[in-house]
Design brief:
By secondary structure, the chain is an all-alpha fold. Helix content is 34%, strand content 0%. This is Amino acid adenylation.
Length: 32
């Protein structure tokens, strides 16, 4: 789960770090 908004620059590192280590990303529209 992202701890920053997708519009924030640090979100890029949070997005690509799991992908480069072989993980996956699930996009959830509503956290609650």
């Amino acid at each position: 789960m992202f701890s920053t908004s997708l519009n924030f620059d640090l979100a890029v590192y949070e997005c690509f770090a799991p992908l480069t280590s072989g993980g996956s990303i699930d996009v959830v529209t509503d956290v609650l």
